[in-house]
Amino acid sequence: MHEPRKLYVKSFGCQMNVYDSHRMADTLAREGFVETQDPAEADLVILNTCHIREKAAEKVYSELGRLRKQKQEAGSDTMIAVAGCVAQAEGAEIMRRAAVVDVVVGPQSYHRLPELLAEAKAGKRVVDTEFPAEDKFDHLPAPTRAATRSRGPAAFVTVQEGCDKFCTFCVVPYTRGAEVSRPVTKILDEAARLLDQGVREITLIGQNVNAFHGEGPDGKVWSLARLMERLAEMKGLARLRYTTSHPRDMGEDLIAAHRDLPQLMPYLHLPVQSGSDRILAAMNRKHGRDLFLSLIEKMRDARPDLALSSDFIVGFPGETDRDFEDTLDLVREVGFASAYSFKYSSRPGTPAAEHDAQVAEEVKTERLAELQKLLEASKAAFDAACRGRTFDILLEKPGRQPGQLIGRSPYLQSVVVNDPPAGIGELLTVTITDVGPNSLAGVPAETPLSPALSRPLAAMEA
Ligand code: SAM
Ligand code: SF4
């Protein structure tokens, strides 16, 4: 019998890439590959790359340099594939700069990996960055029970890909293409399978997830809210989330879903990018500061325990001190539970890259430090206010100490519990006793919060 071939997949960037990496591993499992965490023993290494900022893209070339050295030193014939958005945007450039690469595959062609690898094995260097007419999801096999178990009780399901918004700083519309929504039945089938395999929490993902408009089983177009209503009826689904949303697509039915669906977690990632109307207009965000703030008010009316996270860019071309002050002011007004913030990174081919009022690097660095200080204080205040609160956590993995398990709060905080009376894959009601910089600690509460949802489950079977 042959030894199974070993596959090492490294994901850079967003959750879409994490999901895609899993689906590539599922496709290659059929070809006899098993996953390893050690690139040195891999027969095939896939780098699933991110092109969103210059630094993210450059990481790929340094990783390829490391792999080349490792291959030379070991005299190995490991194959190297580059997938993801850098592959899509710079396929030919990768082949030119990195002779070690055998295959370049764009995000819409993952289902073709087995053929592409066969061609590479025959000595060809292959690039496939087409946007094929066929739907890759129809060809990507579902994960096995063992694969799902190894990934834990919280899973992603892609419902939508691509973006039609064309923010002037962003490469996504070019690397991921136009907005496409998956048909509802296919999403429900995938969810049912995951739930049957022990998954308890599903995060619906898409570059612009709340623009979802998939064909329903009734032939009509379903919104994200309608899809989630249907998912919330599925047995075994304890928690539902979705990311990433655009403020312009927060429809009334989606806001109402936060009021009506107990499984929908009271936590929303809603990128705003800037607090200045002038900059939001230059970014082509299609929303102003007031629309964002009024949305938050409506969301909090619908779900009073809602917490928010967001994305920010500092140093967008033309951003003045006054514009930046508006951003700080918005952060103070909203009180985010968490946030990501970035220096503007000029991306070739995007309109903002052509702007002649680029902000100096030192100014960007200063502004980022100031914004991050404020966001960290806002996060620390939110976490501190959790002390004494009681909520359900979903137990996901072992902790560092024997007997400890780590779960996720509704707000995605890590919560450490000693000797919990429940196992991985189960919900446990805890009261928060300690708040640290990276995690919280809790003890089991005497009365479960929502017995219907916290019932003992078909936990991730061993
Ligand atoms: N679709 C989402 C939205 O509407 O905001 C986000 C997609 S993007 C993968 C994630 C974040 O990366 C963005 O929200 C933005 O803050 C940041 N980003 C995108 N392009 C950037 C650039 N050129 N420079 C710095 N940050 C950028
Ligand atoms: Fe990029 Fe804007 Fe689309 Fe988000 S909405 S993916 S930031 S173009």
Automatic annotation (TrEMBL):
Domain called MTTase N-terminal: residue spans: 5-122
Domain of life: Bacteria
Residue intervals of the TRAM domain: 384-446
Cofactor note: Binds 2 [4Fe-4S] clusters. One cluster is coordinated with 3 cysteines and an exchangeable S-adenosyl-L-methionine.
Reaction(s) the record says it catalyses: N(6)-dimethylallyladenosine(37) in tRNA + (sulfur carrier)-SH + AH2 + 2 S-adenosyl-L-methionine = 2-methylsulfanyl-N(6)-dimethylallyladenosine(37) in tRNA + (sulfur carrier)-H + 5'-deoxyadenosine + L-methionine + A + S-adenosyl-L-homocysteine + 2 H(+)
Keyword Mitochondrion: no
SUPFAM superfamilies hit by this protein: Radical SAM enzymes
Residue span, Radical SAM core domain: 149-383
Main location: cytoplasm
EC number: 2.8.4.3
Localization (cell): Cytoplasm
Any GO MF annotation of the entry: metal ion binding
Binding site for [4Fe-4S] cluster 1: 14, 50, 85
InterPro entries, sorted: Elp3/MiaA/NifB-like_rSAM, Methylthiotransferase, Methylthiotransferase_CS, Methylthiotransferase_N, Methylthiotransferase_N_sf, MiaB_methiolase, rSAM, rSAM_horseshoe
SMART domains: Elp3
Keywords on record: 4Fe-4S, Cytoplasm, Iron, Iron-sulfur, Metal-binding, S-adenosyl-L-methionine, Transferase, tRNA processing
GO cellular component: cytosol
Function: Catalyzes the methylthiolation of N6-(dimethylallyl)adenosine (i(6)A), leading to the formation of 2-methylthio-N6-(dimethylallyl)adenosine (ms(2)i(6)A) at position 37 in tRNAs that read codons beginning with uridine.
Assembly and binders: Monomer.
Family, as annotated: Belongs to the methylthiotransferase family. MiaB subfamily.
Protein name (record): tRNA-2-methylthio-N(6)-dimethylallyladenosine synthase
Organism annotation: Xanthobacter flavus
Biological classification of the source: Bacteria, Pseudomonadati, Pseudomonadota, Alphaproteobacteria, Hyphomicrobiales
